[in-house]
Fold this sequence. Notes:
This protein is an alpha/beta fold. The protein has a domain at about 50-200 and about 235-270 and about 325-365. The protein contains eleven helices and 13 strands. The protein has helices spanning about 10-30, 50-60, 130-145, 165-175, 195-205, 245-255, 280-290, 300-305, 325-335, 340-350, 360-365; strands at about 75, 80-85, 100-105, 150-155, 180-185, 190, 215, 235-240, 270-275, 275, 295-300, 320, 355-360. The strands form four sheets. A seven-stranded mixed sheet has the order 11-7-8-5-3-4-13, with helices on both faces. The longest helix is centred in the N-terminal third of the chain and has 23 residues, at about 10-30.
Amino acid sequence: xxxxxxxxxxxxxxxxxxxxxxxxxxxxxxxxxxxxxxxxxxxxxxxxxxxxxxxxxxxxxxxxxxxxxxxxxxxxxxxxxxxxxxxxxxxxxxxxxxxxxxxxxxxxxxxxxxxxxxxxxxxxxxxxxxxxxxxxxxxxxxxxxxxxxxxxxxxxxxxxxxxxxxxxxxxxxxxxxxxxxxxxxxxxxxxxxxxxxxxxxxxxxxxxxxxxxxxxxxxxxxxxxxxxxxxxxxxxxxxxxxxxxxxxxxxxxxxxxxxxxxxxxxxxxxxxxxxxxxxxxxxxxxxxxxxxxxxxxxxxxxxxxxxxxxxxxxxxxxxxxxxxxxxxxxxxxxxxxxxxxxxxxxxxxxxxxxxxxxxxxxxxxxxxx
Length: 369
């Protein structure tokens, strides 16, 4: 190529540079919008490292708590007003680590695209992103935003009943170290990351002097009724308060499926069958009737379900995506952690694993957590 010794005009140079930038940008757009069947090798990641600045931007700017615990009204994105109806809200200050969120599972989730897999999850390979793993990540991120204590418990399954019967002993072991603990199934997520849970407890009138546990009603359906034709409470979302009655309820619930227990027929709920939803069925058929004044029912429309289920339960605050878990959880969490944020946040989660991960054996041996 021969370069002219005559200087070019500034206008010509500007046009040339702009043309090159346009071509590079166009090629990048085409490359990024290739057919979805093409995926990058798992070893290639485009997200920047989880620097303190990026993490602060996500946790303290995008999703910072948007209302005080006793604010009169919450409006998500300045729409759809939700007002406190209680005259004197109990929860007036952030609880911080006095409130805990508990995740537990017996599965390893160590495959590619999963929570503890070899590489952080990335939307560059969205087909391989594991829905339930996103649910856990949502819980951790929500705890991080509001300063709550987070636990992930890796437990050994029972041999004679479904693993979900582990909820009572594990919750009972952690709760004494906090005022309130939340348990969520991996397919249940916090829909509004900016909304403090103290505000929701005021909204639902969950008080330390009027209940021990709070659970959401299931949708109205014949399979969701107990033998007395009352709708089950869904044990996939539990608000547990640290008081003596809570531990009494948990002991009764744990013993319900044992041979020779207070409710002999509760052994029929050891495993999941249509109309016999295991630990949920035992709780709903027996335990809630033993403690009618200590267990609060939360509206299904607000604390269960999701709009696409067409069940009448919208999951306004807690989305419980019992069906289509591979896709619907991605839709919710994908909006909360778009683009590179998924990979950045998952990297930070993995980097902090030692702060929250315990095996069941480790948990049960500890006096202090």
